[in-house]
Amino acid sequence: MICTTPLSSGQTNGPVNSRHLLPSHEWSDIVRYTTAEDLHSLRLVGSKDMHLSDPFLTSHLSIRMDKAPFFSTNNSHTVDQIRRWLTNRRTLVINDVNSKICPSQVAYLVRNGFLDSISDIIVMDCHFHLDIISILSHLPNLESLKLVDRGDEEVLDDLEAIITHVGRITSLQHLDIEFDCAISGSRLSILSEMYNLKYLRLRGFDLSEGMSNMSDLTRLETLHLCHGNFYSSPDDDVNEKDLLHLVNMTSKIDNVHLEGFDSLSNNGLSVFSKSPNSLRRLVLKHCQELSKDSLPCIGRMRHLESLHIVNSAYDDAPIFESEDLQHLNSLIGVKSLSLFYVLEDVAHLRALWGMESLEVLNIALEENPNEEEVEDICLTVLSSFVALKRLRIFTEDGMSYSYQRGGLEIEHGSFNFGDQVFLD
Protein backbone atom coordinates (compact mmCIF):
# COMPACT_ATOMS: atom_id res chain seq x y z
CA MET A 1 0.00 0.00 0.00
CA ILE A 2 1.02 3.62 -0.50
CA CYS A 3 2.23 5.13 2.77
CA THR A 4 1.76 8.71 3.88
CA THR A 5 4.09 10.56 6.25
CA PRO A 6 3.55 13.64 8.46
CA LEU A 7 4.53 17.01 7.01
CA SER A 8 7.90 18.20 8.22
CA SER A 9 8.71 21.77 9.21
CA GLY A 10 8.33 24.17 6.32
CA GLN A 11 6.09 21.86 4.27
CA THR A 12 2.57 22.74 3.29
CA ASN A 13 -0.38 20.61 2.43
CA GLY A 14 -0.87 22.35 -0.93
CA PRO A 15 -0.42 20.77 -4.37
CA VAL A 16 2.96 19.26 -5.08
CA ASN A 17 4.61 20.02 -8.40
CA SER A 18 5.88 16.61 -9.52
CA ARG A 19 8.35 18.23 -11.94
CA HIS A 20 10.37 19.29 -8.89
CA LEU A 21 10.34 15.72 -7.54
CA LEU A 22 10.56 13.10 -10.27
CA PRO A 23 10.65 13.13 -14.06
CA SER A 24 7.71 11.45 -15.79
CA HIS A 25 9.60 8.29 -16.76
CA GLU A 26 10.51 7.72 -13.10
CA TRP A 27 6.85 8.15 -12.09
CA SER A 28 6.09 5.47 -14.64
CA ASP A 29 8.67 3.14 -13.10
CA ILE A 30 7.13 3.62 -9.65
CA VAL A 31 3.47 3.35 -10.64
CA ARG A 32 3.91 0.05 -12.47
CA TYR A 33 4.49 -1.62 -9.09
CA THR A 34 1.24 -0.29 -7.60
CA THR A 35 -2.15 -1.94 -7.33
CA ALA A 36 -5.33 -0.31 -8.60
CA GLU A 37 -6.10 0.76 -5.02
CA ASP A 38 -2.66 2.31 -4.58
CA LEU A 39 -2.98 4.25 -7.83
CA HIS A 40 -6.40 5.53 -6.81
CA SER A 41 -4.88 6.81 -3.54
CA LEU A 42 -2.09 8.54 -5.44
CA ARG A 43 -4.60 10.24 -7.70
CA LEU A 44 -6.56 11.52 -4.72
CA VAL A 45 -3.54 13.14 -3.06
CA GLY A 46 -1.59 14.12 -6.17
CA SER A 47 -1.76 17.20 -8.34
CA LYS A 48 -2.70 17.50 -12.01
CA ASP A 49 0.98 18.05 -12.81
CA MET A 50 1.62 14.42 -11.88
CA HIS A 51 -0.54 13.23 -14.82
CA LEU A 52 -1.68 10.18 -12.87
CA SER A 53 -4.76 9.83 -15.07
CA ASP A 54 -2.58 9.05 -18.07
CA PRO A 55 -3.68 5.55 -19.24
CA PHE A 56 -0.07 4.73 -20.00
CA LEU A 57 0.54 4.55 -16.24
CA THR A 58 -2.13 1.85 -15.82
CA SER A 59 -0.90 -0.58 -18.47
CA HIS A 60 0.27 -3.01 -15.75
CA LEU A 61 -3.31 -3.27 -14.43
CA SER A 62 -6.15 -5.35 -15.87
CA ILE A 63 -8.78 -3.58 -17.94
CA ARG A 64 -12.50 -4.35 -17.74
CA MET A 65 -13.87 -4.90 -21.23
CA ASP A 66 -17.38 -4.49 -19.84
CA LYS A 67 -16.52 -1.04 -18.42
CA ALA A 68 -14.10 0.51 -20.93
CA PRO A 69 -16.28 2.49 -23.39
CA PHE A 70 -14.13 1.82 -26.45
CA PHE A 71 -15.23 -1.85 -26.42
CA SER A 72 -18.90 -0.87 -26.56
CA THR A 73 -21.38 0.28 -29.18
CA ASN A 74 -21.11 3.82 -27.77
CA ASN A 75 -17.41 4.24 -28.49
CA SER A 76 -16.38 7.87 -28.99
CA HIS A 77 -12.63 7.42 -28.53
CA THR A 78 -10.19 8.10 -31.34
CA VAL A 79 -7.80 5.46 -32.59
CA ASP A 80 -4.89 7.20 -30.85
CA GLN A 81 -6.79 7.33 -27.55
CA ILE A 82 -7.66 3.64 -27.74
CA ARG A 83 -4.10 2.70 -28.60
CA ARG A 84 -2.82 4.69 -25.62
CA TRP A 85 -5.17 2.75 -23.33
CA LEU A 86 -4.24 -0.65 -24.75
CA THR A 87 -0.49 -0.36 -25.41
CA ASN A 88 1.38 -2.92 -23.27
CA ARG A 89 -1.87 -3.98 -21.58
CA ARG A 90 -1.67 -7.63 -20.51
CA THR A 91 -4.95 -8.58 -18.80
CA LEU A 92 -8.57 -8.36 -19.99
CA VAL A 93 -11.49 -9.06 -17.64
CA ILE A 94 -15.22 -9.49 -18.37
CA ASN A 95 -17.40 -9.60 -15.27
CA ASP A 96 -20.82 -8.17 -16.15
CA VAL A 97 -23.65 -10.13 -17.78
CA ASN A 98 -25.32 -6.86 -18.79
CA SER A 99 -22.30 -5.42 -20.56
CA LYS A 100 -22.70 -3.73 -23.95
CA ILE A 101 -19.52 -5.08 -25.52
CA CYS A 102 -19.75 -4.73 -29.29
CA PRO A 103 -18.47 -7.81 -31.19
CA SER A 104 -17.68 -5.81 -34.33
CA GLN A 105 -15.67 -3.26 -32.32
CA VAL A 106 -13.71 -6.02 -30.56
CA ALA A 107 -13.11 -7.74 -33.90
CA TYR A 108 -11.73 -4.47 -35.32
CA LEU A 109 -9.35 -4.08 -32.36
CA VAL A 110 -8.16 -7.69 -32.64
CA ARG A 111 -7.75 -7.53 -36.41
CA ASN A 112 -5.67 -4.35 -36.24
CA GLY A 113 -3.34 -5.44 -33.45
CA PHE A 114 -4.62 -3.19 -30.65
CA LEU A 115 -4.81 -6.21 -28.32
CA ASP A 116 -1.66 -8.03 -29.39
CA SER A 117 -0.01 -7.45 -25.99
CA ILE A 118 -2.83 -9.25 -24.14
CA SER A 119 -1.60 -12.45 -22.48
CA ASP A 120 -4.24 -13.07 -19.78
CA ILE A 121 -8.04 -13.21 -20.09
CA ILE A 122 -10.63 -13.77 -17.34
CA VAL A 123 -14.30 -14.22 -18.25
CA MET A 124 -17.04 -14.66 -15.64
CA ASP A 125 -20.50 -15.99 -16.59
CA CYS A 126 -18.87 -16.85 -19.86
CA HIS A 127 -21.93 -18.28 -21.68
CA PHE A 128 -23.17 -14.69 -22.00
CA HIS A 129 -20.01 -13.80 -23.92
CA LEU A 130 -19.69 -16.61 -26.47
CA ASP A 131 -19.24 -14.24 -29.43
CA ILE A 132 -16.57 -12.18 -27.67
CA ILE A 133 -14.61 -15.28 -26.58
CA SER A 134 -14.71 -16.52 -30.17
CA ILE A 135 -13.11 -13.27 -31.35
CA LEU A 136 -10.53 -13.09 -28.55
CA SER A 137 -9.41 -16.66 -29.24
CA HIS A 138 -7.57 -15.28 -32.30
CA LEU A 139 -5.22 -13.13 -30.21
CA PRO A 140 -1.61 -14.12 -30.96
CA ASN A 141 0.02 -13.99 -27.52
CA LEU A 142 -2.48 -15.50 -25.08
CA GLU A 143 -0.84 -17.45 -22.26
CA SER A 144 -3.53 -17.60 -19.56
CA LEU A 145 -7.31 -18.11 -19.74
CA LYS A 146 -9.82 -18.43 -16.92
CA LEU A 147 -13.48 -19.21 -17.65
CA VAL A 148 -16.16 -19.36 -14.96
CA ASP A 149 -19.86 -20.07 -15.42
CA ARG A 150 -22.72 -20.69 -12.98
CA GLY A 151 -25.28 -21.69 -15.60
CA ASP A 152 -27.22 -24.98 -15.51
CA GLU A 153 -27.79 -27.59 -18.22
CA GLU A 154 -29.69 -25.05 -20.34
CA VAL A 155 -26.43 -23.33 -21.29
CA LEU A 156 -24.57 -26.56 -22.08
CA ASP A 157 -24.53 -25.93 -25.84
CA ASP A 158 -23.01 -22.47 -25.37
CA LEU A 159 -20.34 -23.82 -23.03
CA GLU A 160 -19.43 -26.59 -25.45
CA ALA A 161 -19.12 -24.01 -28.23
CA ILE A 162 -16.83 -21.93 -26.00
CA ILE A 163 -14.62 -24.97 -25.39
CA THR A 164 -14.31 -25.43 -29.15
CA HIS A 165 -13.02 -21.85 -29.48
CA VAL A 166 -10.58 -22.41 -26.61
CA GLY A 167 -9.07 -25.26 -28.61
CA ARG A 168 -7.78 -22.64 -31.03
CA ILE A 169 -5.46 -21.12 -28.43
CA THR A 170 -2.53 -23.51 -28.58
CA SER A 171 -0.19 -20.92 -27.02
CA LEU A 172 -1.84 -21.27 -23.59
CA GLN A 173 0.35 -22.05 -20.59
CA HIS A 174 -2.38 -21.61 -17.97
CA LEU A 175 -5.96 -22.91 -18.43
CA ASP A 176 -8.55 -22.68 -15.65
CA ILE A 177 -12.17 -23.72 -16.37
CA GLU A 178 -14.88 -23.82 -13.71
CA PHE A 179 -18.45 -24.71 -14.74
CA ASP A 180 -21.45 -25.59 -12.60
CA CYS A 181 -22.76 -28.11 -15.11
CA ALA A 182 -20.84 -31.11 -16.40
CA ILE A 183 -19.60 -31.11 -19.99
CA SER A 184 -18.72 -34.35 -21.76
CA GLY A 185 -15.07 -35.27 -21.34
CA SER A 186 -14.91 -35.90 -25.07
CA ARG A 187 -14.63 -32.11 -25.42
CA LEU A 188 -11.17 -32.36 -23.88
CA SER A 189 -9.84 -33.27 -27.30
CA ILE A 190 -8.93 -29.55 -27.40
CA LEU A 191 -6.04 -30.36 -25.04
CA SER A 192 -4.25 -32.68 -27.42
CA GLU A 193 -2.33 -29.82 -29.07
CA MET A 194 -1.84 -27.55 -26.04
CA TYR A 195 1.76 -28.65 -25.61
CA ASN A 196 2.74 -25.48 -23.71
CA LEU A 197 0.35 -25.97 -20.79
CA LYS A 198 1.99 -25.74 -17.37
CA TYR A 199 -1.19 -25.26 -15.31
CA LEU A 200 -4.48 -27.08 -15.93
CA ARG A 201 -7.55 -26.82 -13.72
CA LEU A 202 -10.81 -28.41 -14.88
CA ARG A 203 -14.03 -28.34 -12.89
CA GLY A 204 -17.31 -29.15 -14.61
CA PHE A 205 -16.32 -32.02 -16.90
CA ASP A 206 -17.42 -35.65 -16.98
CA LEU A 207 -13.98 -37.21 -16.69
CA SER A 208 -15.22 -40.75 -17.21
CA GLU A 209 -13.94 -40.12 -20.73
CA GLY A 210 -11.45 -37.82 -22.39
CA MET A 211 -8.45 -38.06 -20.06
CA SER A 212 -6.37 -39.67 -22.79
CA ASN A 213 -6.22 -36.23 -24.42
CA MET A 214 -3.85 -35.09 -21.64
CA SER A 215 -1.18 -37.66 -22.44
CA ASP A 216 1.12 -35.26 -24.32
CA LEU A 217 1.05 -32.39 -21.80
CA THR A 218 4.66 -33.02 -20.86
CA ARG A 219 5.30 -29.51 -19.51
CA LEU A 220 2.48 -29.63 -16.98
CA GLU A 221 3.42 -28.60 -13.43
CA THR A 222 -0.03 -28.24 -11.81
CA LEU A 223 -2.96 -30.58 -12.46
CA HIS A 224 -6.34 -29.95 -10.80
CA LEU A 225 -9.13 -32.29 -11.93
CA CYS A 226 -12.67 -32.44 -10.56
CA HIS A 227 -15.04 -35.12 -11.84
CA GLY A 228 -18.22 -33.08 -12.19
CA ASN A 229 -18.47 -29.93 -10.07
CA PHE A 230 -18.44 -28.68 -6.47
CA TYR A 231 -21.76 -30.32 -5.64
CA SER A 232 -22.16 -33.59 -7.54
CA SER A 233 -20.46 -36.13 -9.76
CA PRO A 234 -21.70 -37.54 -13.08
CA ASP A 235 -23.40 -40.94 -13.14
CA ASP A 236 -20.30 -42.80 -14.34
CA ASP A 237 -17.18 -42.95 -12.17
CA VAL A 238 -13.73 -42.12 -13.45
CA ASN A 239 -11.87 -45.27 -14.42
CA GLU A 240 -8.67 -44.93 -12.40
CA LYS A 241 -6.78 -46.71 -15.17
CA ASP A 242 -7.33 -43.57 -17.24
CA LEU A 243 -4.80 -41.89 -14.95
CA LEU A 244 -2.18 -44.07 -16.63
CA HIS A 245 -2.59 -41.87 -19.71
CA LEU A 246 -0.70 -39.25 -17.70
CA VAL A 247 2.42 -41.38 -17.35
CA ASN A 248 4.46 -39.29 -19.82
CA MET A 249 3.80 -35.99 -18.09
CA THR A 250 4.32 -36.70 -14.40
CA SER A 251 8.07 -36.08 -14.18
CA LYS A 252 7.54 -32.29 -13.94
CA ILE A 253 4.24 -32.20 -12.05
CA ASP A 254 4.63 -30.84 -8.53
CA ASN A 255 0.96 -30.19 -7.63
CA VAL A 256 -1.94 -32.64 -8.10
CA HIS A 257 -5.54 -32.16 -6.94
CA LEU A 258 -8.04 -34.96 -7.66
CA GLU A 259 -11.67 -34.46 -6.66
CA GLY A 260 -14.54 -36.92 -7.01
CA PHE A 261 -12.25 -39.76 -8.14
CA ASP A 262 -13.88 -42.71 -6.35
CA SER A 263 -12.27 -46.08 -5.60
CA LEU A 264 -8.72 -44.85 -6.15
CA SER A 265 -6.03 -47.39 -5.40
CA ASN A 266 -2.38 -48.06 -6.01
CA ASN A 267 -3.24 -48.86 -9.64
CA GLY A 268 -4.14 -45.27 -10.50
CA LEU A 269 -2.02 -43.30 -8.05
CA SER A 270 1.15 -45.17 -8.99
CA VAL A 271 1.49 -42.88 -12.01
CA PHE A 272 2.39 -40.05 -9.60
CA SER A 273 4.94 -42.08 -7.64
CA LYS A 274 7.06 -43.36 -10.50
CA SER A 275 10.63 -42.13 -10.86
CA PRO A 276 11.65 -39.44 -11.69
CA ASN A 277 9.13 -37.70 -9.50
CA SER A 278 8.84 -34.10 -8.31
CA LEU A 279 5.36 -34.13 -6.74
CA ARG A 280 5.26 -31.77 -3.75
CA ARG A 281 1.53 -31.36 -3.14
CA LEU A 282 -1.23 -33.99 -3.36
CA VAL A 283 -4.91 -33.36 -2.60
CA LEU A 284 -7.49 -36.15 -2.70
CA LYS A 285 -10.85 -34.49 -2.06
CA HIS A 286 -14.16 -36.36 -1.87
CA CYS A 287 -12.46 -39.43 -3.32
CA GLN A 288 -14.80 -41.99 -1.80
CA GLU A 289 -13.81 -45.59 -1.07
CA LEU A 290 -10.13 -44.71 -1.23
CA SER A 291 -8.27 -48.01 -1.02
CA LYS A 292 -5.89 -48.54 1.87
CA ASP A 293 -3.31 -49.82 -0.61
CA SER A 294 -3.02 -46.23 -1.84
CA LEU A 295 -1.06 -45.31 1.30
CA PRO A 296 2.09 -47.33 0.44
CA CYS A 297 1.91 -45.73 -3.01
CA ILE A 298 1.65 -42.24 -1.49
CA GLY A 299 4.53 -43.13 0.79
CA ARG A 300 6.72 -43.49 -2.29
CA MET A 301 6.11 -39.86 -3.27
CA ARG A 302 9.25 -38.88 -1.38
CA HIS A 303 9.25 -35.18 -2.30
CA LEU A 304 5.78 -34.43 -0.87
CA GLU A 305 5.52 -31.34 1.31
CA SER A 306 1.69 -31.22 1.50
CA LEU A 307 -0.70 -34.17 1.68
CA HIS A 308 -4.44 -33.60 2.05
CA ILE A 309 -7.03 -36.40 2.19
CA VAL A 310 -10.28 -34.44 2.50
CA ASN A 311 -13.71 -36.04 2.94
CA SER A 312 -17.05 -34.83 4.24
CA ALA A 313 -19.13 -36.55 6.91
CA TYR A 314 -21.30 -38.01 4.13
CA ASP A 315 -18.50 -39.45 2.02
CA ASP A 316 -17.77 -43.16 2.12
CA ALA A 317 -14.29 -42.73 3.56
CA PRO A 318 -11.92 -45.47 4.75
CA ILE A 319 -10.79 -45.67 8.36
CA PHE A 320 -7.02 -45.71 8.70
CA GLU A 321 -5.47 -47.68 11.54
CA SER A 322 -1.94 -47.31 12.86
CA GLU A 323 -0.60 -50.01 10.56
CA ASP A 324 -2.03 -48.14 7.56
CA LEU A 325 -0.62 -44.75 8.53
CA GLN A 326 2.86 -46.17 9.07
CA HIS A 327 3.32 -46.33 5.30
CA LEU A 328 3.54 -42.52 5.31
CA ASN A 329 6.59 -42.33 7.58
CA SER A 330 8.88 -42.06 4.58
CA LEU A 331 7.41 -38.59 3.92
CA ILE A 332 9.89 -36.79 6.12
CA GLY A 333 9.47 -33.50 4.23
CA VAL A 334 5.71 -33.13 4.68
CA LYS A 335 4.90 -29.82 6.36
CA SER A 336 1.09 -29.85 6.08
CA LEU A 337 -1.20 -32.87 6.46
CA SER A 338 -4.99 -33.24 6.32
CA LEU A 339 -6.90 -36.34 7.40
CA PHE A 340 -10.67 -35.75 7.24
CA TYR A 341 -12.99 -38.43 8.62
CA VAL A 342 -10.44 -41.21 8.26
CA LEU A 343 -9.42 -41.41 11.93
CA GLU A 344 -11.51 -43.43 14.35
CA ASP A 345 -9.02 -42.75 17.11
CA VAL A 346 -6.78 -39.66 17.07
CA ALA A 347 -4.22 -41.68 19.03
CA HIS A 348 -3.41 -43.48 15.77
CA LEU A 349 -1.56 -40.32 14.72
CA ARG A 350 1.29 -41.52 16.92
CA ALA A 351 2.05 -44.00 14.15
CA LEU A 352 3.31 -41.08 12.03
CA TRP A 353 6.57 -40.80 13.94
CA GLY A 354 8.52 -40.14 10.72
CA MET A 355 6.81 -36.82 9.91
CA GLU A 356 9.35 -34.77 11.80
CA SER A 357 8.87 -31.68 9.58
CA LEU A 358 5.08 -31.42 10.07
CA GLU A 359 4.00 -27.86 10.91
CA VAL A 360 0.27 -27.87 10.07
CA LEU A 361 -2.18 -30.67 10.90
CA ASN A 362 -5.83 -30.58 9.82
CA ILE A 363 -8.25 -33.22 11.08
CA ALA A 364 -12.02 -33.60 10.76
CA LEU A 365 -14.00 -35.50 13.38
CA GLU A 366 -17.54 -36.87 13.59
CA GLU A 367 -18.42 -34.84 16.69
CA ASN A 368 -17.27 -31.62 18.30
CA PRO A 369 -14.65 -32.53 20.92
CA ASN A 370 -15.12 -31.15 24.41
CA GLU A 371 -12.39 -29.29 26.26
CA GLU A 372 -10.91 -32.43 27.78
CA GLU A 373 -10.89 -34.23 24.42
CA VAL A 374 -9.17 -31.28 22.77
CA GLU A 375 -6.50 -31.39 25.45
CA ASP A 376 -5.95 -35.11 24.76
CA ILE A 377 -5.63 -34.35 21.04
CA CYS A 378 -3.08 -31.63 21.79
CA LEU A 379 -1.01 -33.95 23.96
CA THR A 380 -1.04 -36.57 21.22
CA VAL A 381 0.02 -34.28 18.39
CA LEU A 382 2.59 -32.33 20.40
CA SER A 383 4.31 -35.53 21.49
CA SER A 384 4.26 -36.87 17.92
CA PHE A 385 5.13 -33.81 15.82
CA VAL A 386 7.89 -31.72 17.38
CA ALA A 387 7.72 -29.01 14.68
CA LEU A 388 3.92 -28.56 14.80
CA LYS A 389 2.76 -24.94 14.81
CA ARG A 390 -0.93 -25.13 13.88
CA LEU A 391 -3.71 -27.64 14.59
CA ARG A 392 -7.05 -27.27 12.83
CA ILE A 393 -10.03 -29.31 14.04
CA PHE A 394 -13.06 -29.46 11.74
CA THR A 395 -16.52 -30.88 12.33
CA GLU A 396 -19.70 -30.71 10.30
CA ASP A 397 -21.27 -27.93 12.36
CA GLY A 398 -18.34 -26.60 14.36
CA MET A 399 -18.03 -22.96 15.36
CA SER A 400 -15.09 -20.98 14.02
CA TYR A 401 -12.65 -19.74 16.64
CA SER A 402 -8.98 -20.01 17.49
CA TYR A 403 -6.66 -19.72 20.46
CA GLN A 404 -3.07 -20.32 21.45
CA ARG A 405 -1.75 -23.19 23.56
CA GLY A 406 1.88 -22.38 24.18
CA GLY A 407 3.56 -22.41 20.78
CA LEU A 408 0.63 -24.23 19.16
CA GLU A 409 -2.16 -22.32 17.43
CA ILE A 410 -5.47 -24.21 17.57
CA GLU A 411 -8.28 -23.43 15.15
CA HIS A 412 -11.80 -24.86 15.15
CA GLY A 413 -14.08 -24.69 12.13
CA SER A 414 -16.81 -26.39 10.12
CA PHE A 415 -16.47 -28.40 6.93
CA ASN A 416 -19.27 -29.65 4.70
CA PHE A 417 -19.42 -31.28 1.29
CA GLY A 418 -18.10 -28.95 -1.38
CA ASP A 419 -16.58 -26.43 1.04
CA GLN A 420 -13.25 -24.89 0.17
CA VAL A 421 -10.87 -24.53 3.09
CA PHE A 422 -7.30 -23.32 3.44
CA LEU A 423 -5.17 -26.31 4.43
CA ASP A 424 -1.50 -25.27 4.16
What does this structure look like?
This protein is of the alpha/beta class and 424 residues long. Among the domains are: 18-55; 62-172. The protein has ten helices and 15 strands. A 15-stranded mixed β-sheet has the order 1-2-3-4-5-6-7-8-9-10-11-12-13-15-14. Helix 4 (103-111) links the parallel strand 2 and strand 3. Helix 4 (103-111) runs parallel beside helix 5. InterPro entries: LRR_dom_sf.
Short note summarizing the structure:
This protein has ten helices and 15 strands. By secondary structure, it is an alpha/beta fold. Helix 9 links the parallel strand 10 (306-310) and strand 11 (336-340).
Could you state the order of secondary-structure elements as H and E?
A: HHEHEHEHEHEEEEHEHEHEEHEEE
Stretches where pLDDT is under 50 for at least 5 consecutive residues are 1-20
Q: Calculate the terminal CA-CA distance, rounded to whole Å.
A: 26 Å
Global mean pLDDT: 88
Beta-strand portion reads 15-25%
Helix content: 10-25%
- How many whole angstroms does the radius of gyration measure? 26 Å
Shape: elongated
How many helices does DSSP assign?
A: 10
Sheet having the most strands:
15 strands, mixed
What order do the strands of the largest sheet run in, or round the barrel if closed? 1-2-3-4-5-6-7-8-9-10-11-12-13-15-14
Annotation, overall tally of beta strands: 15
Structural class per helix/strand content?
alpha/beta
How are the SSEs ordered, and which strands pair?
Blueprint: H1 24-31, H2 36-45, E1 63-64, H3 79-86, E2 91-94, H4 103-111, E3 120-124, H5 130-136, E4 144-149, H6 156-166, E5 174-184, E6 199-206, E7 222-227, E8 255-259, H7 266-269, E9 281-285, H8 294-299, E10 306-310, H9 322-325, E11 336-340, E12 360-364, H10 371-384, E13 390-395, E14 401-405, E15 408-414
Parallel strand pairs: 1-2, 2-3, 3-4, 4-5, 5-6, 6-7, 7-8, 8-9, 9-10, 10-11, 11-12, 12-13, 13-15
Antiparallel strand pairs: 14-15
Helix pairs in contact: 4-5
